Each structure stands twice: as C-alpha cells, then as structure tokens.
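Good morning,

Attaching, inline, the backbone tokens for the sequence recovery test we're adding to the shared suite. The designed sequence is right after.
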C-alpha cells in the first residue's frame, strides 16, 4: 500500500545545546494543529520528553559536536563520524524523501548554519530539486545569526538560498532586530524573507495573569554542554547577594557530563538544588524572583513571556556572536543585565544580580514584539504545501 504523501519533511540538527530542537518542536506542534502531516527528522542526541505533538518522529543515527569549536562531529559513543556514517545518514534522508514525497522540505537553520551537514543535505536538496513534483523548500531561521568570518562562507550561503530555497522564515520581529543586523548580505534574496514573529513555548496570555515573582532564583544553562562555569559562578555568588536567603534552583541541562554534574551537586549548600532540565521551565520562571542564564533564543523568549528579572551571560566561545547581540539589544532596552562570559566570576555575577533586581519589567518589551511566530510559521508552511499541491509556478 503506497505511503500517503507528507505535507512537510522537517529536518533539525542540534549539535551542542538543545535550543534548535526545542524551537523546532514548538513549530512542529503548531503545524500539527494546523492540520499538516509532518515527518519530523532529528539528527542530534535524543532528548528526554521531546514533544512533536501528532507529527511522525524519525531519529537519525545521532551526532553531536565534540566541543565548542563545532569542528568535529561524533556519535553517541564519542567516535568521530566517518564516511560510512555519513553515507548511512544521507541514505536515510533520501529514502524519507522518496517514501513521503513531501510538499514542503523544511530545514532548521540550513544553509545559514549547520554547514557541517552538507554531506547529507546537499544530496537531499539536489534530489528534491530534481523530483517530478519539486517540493517547496523553506528555511526556518532564528532572529539573530552568528557573524560569518570565514572567507567565502557568506557567498556560499547566498548561492545556496538563491539556487534551492523558496522562502526564508525568520522567527523574529524586524522592529526589534532585522535579519540584516547579523547577516547584512540579504539583498539578493530579500523577496524570499518572511518574518513570522517570535516563537514562544507558552503565549503570555496562557500564563497566570498575576505572576508572583516571590519564589526561587532559577539558574539555567540550556542544554548544559557548557553549563559548568555559569553554575560554579552562581554557587559562589549566592552568599554575596540579597537573595542568599531564598531557594536557588540550578538547571544543568541533559548534556552536562555526569561526572561534572555530580561534582557540582556536591558543592550545593542548604537551599540550593541542582537538577537536569525541567519540562515546566516556563512555569518555574513565572514565579521566580530572578533568572540567571545564557541568552539563547528560547530562554530569552521565556524570560520576556514571564516578566522575570534577568541576568544574561551570553555564550561567546569560538567567536559566537549570536547570544551577545541578542543580550545587548535587551540591555539597551533596560530589561536585562548582561555579564560578558570572559568577565564572569562570583563578584561580577553578584553585582549583576543586584542590578537586575532594579531593572525594567521585561513584559514592557514583550508587549511591543510580534509573538505569533508558531502560528504564522504554520500558516506560511501550509500555504506553501497547498501551492505545491496545486502545481502553481514556483
């Protein structure tokens, strides 16, 4: 019996943190609610409680990056990816394309990021482009990109967009930060850009209308692969702050090494709890006195949605500029206190905490941002699927 054609084949690859996967899951659930049949393909390490709604979930042989340089890909056991492993993943993707004949081929970040995955994604794009019924090809892109300094990289991205992609969905608000702020060379594909608004786990109107920020201090570090310095600084800073007498909850994320997790846990004093990531993170923030975190897309959206005072320590290893720019924009609007990663220590964090408690209400900024990103993205993808089904000119 032939397989029913899918509306969307959605590819996402998380390598270090889990933010890419988390945002993609929100989008997948929105597309599912919009009535789209979605095949969700994940190439990173499995993450507990991954929720894609009613979408079909496919796990590729998992890969992660060996370290913060993103230069080496390894499997679950830490073994470096070889040609055999590359071929296996490539073939699975090509089989999925042939089996499901998607109306839309949706890529999270690629080609603006995940160039390490060209070995499997370029063959997939070529096969899709050569299909008798070519799918609409769309990129799902966060609001801010890391600045590309490698010679020829920007030119390669532009050519890939021009040659293969029909739309670039930017999950942000151009009134806050237009794409060209972090990727200036957009003129050749400006007509393909669609701003969707920000993608939130929980819409602000779904949270308690009268949020009480009289609970814990929440320290979070995304997926946790680079969590140790932030957690160590928080443990050392706590006795120096006006919040030393309230409970602190430290969320390390699933990717922090077990040995490091146990070492940090041994340093937790009374009133301090260290855990892995929590599915109720947004709810925790809605009652927290303060959030201390990095400045990833999803965490910042949760901070704005819950109006919690915030200290941001943007991830900046190996010339990563994305989080630093996002944090800077929030600091300029007075809704967060920012500490540079290379200046993080107990003293600087303690001072930042006191400053954050006096900052503006983050909700003031959220009220001016477009936060309909999940629903609008689903509507745009649905329109693209209908266009392909109707055989409209591309």
């Amino acid at each position: 019996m032939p397989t029913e054609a899918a509306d969307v084949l959605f590819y996402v690859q998380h390598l270090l943190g889990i933010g890419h996967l988390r945002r993609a899951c929100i989008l997948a659930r929105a597309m599912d609610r919009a009535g789209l049949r979605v095949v969700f393909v994940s190439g990173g390490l499995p993450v507990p409680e991954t929720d894609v709604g009613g979408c079909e979930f496919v796990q590729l042989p998992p890969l992660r990056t060996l370290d913060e340089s993103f230069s080496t890909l390894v499997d679950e056991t830490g073994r470096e990816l070889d040609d055999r492993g590359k071929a296996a993943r490539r073939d699975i993707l090509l089989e999925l394309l042939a089996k499901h004949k998607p109306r839309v081929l949706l890529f999270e970040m690629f080609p603006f990021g995940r160039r390490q995955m060209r070995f499997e994604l370029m063959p997939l794009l070529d096969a899709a482009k050569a299909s008798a019924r070519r799918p609409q090809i769309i990129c799902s892109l966060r609001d801010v990109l890391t600045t590309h300094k490698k010679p020829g990289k920007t030119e390669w991205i532009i050519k890939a967009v021009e040659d293969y992609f029909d739309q670039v969905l930017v999950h942000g608000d151009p009134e806050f930060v237009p794409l060209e702020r972090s990727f200036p060379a957009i003129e050749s594909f400006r007509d393909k850009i669609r701003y969707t608004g920000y993608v939130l786990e929980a819409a602000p109107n779904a949270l308690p209308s009268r949020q009480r920020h009289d609970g814990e201090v929440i320290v979070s570090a995304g997926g946790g692969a680079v969590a140790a310095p932030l957690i160590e600084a928080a443990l050392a800073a706590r006795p120096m702050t006006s919040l030393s007498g309230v409970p602190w909850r430290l969320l390390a994320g699933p990717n922090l090494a077990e040995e490091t997790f146990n070492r940090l846990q041994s340093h937790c004093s009374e009133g301090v709890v260290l855990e892995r990531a929590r599915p109720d993170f947004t709810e925790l923030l809605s009652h927290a006195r303060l959030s201390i975190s990095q400045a990833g897309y999803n965490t910042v959206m949760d901070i704005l949605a819950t109006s919690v005072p915030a200290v941001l320590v943007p991830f900046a290893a190996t010339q990563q500029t994305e989080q630093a720019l996002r944090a800077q924009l929030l600091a300029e609007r007075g809704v967060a206190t920012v500490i540079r990663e290379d200046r993080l220590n107990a003293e600087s964090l303690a001072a930042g905490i006191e400053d954050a408690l006096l900052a503006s209400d983050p909700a003031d900024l959220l009220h001016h941002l477009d936060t309909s990103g999940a629903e609008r993205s689903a509507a745009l993808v649905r329109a693209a699927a209908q266009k392909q089904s109707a055989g409209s000119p591309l």
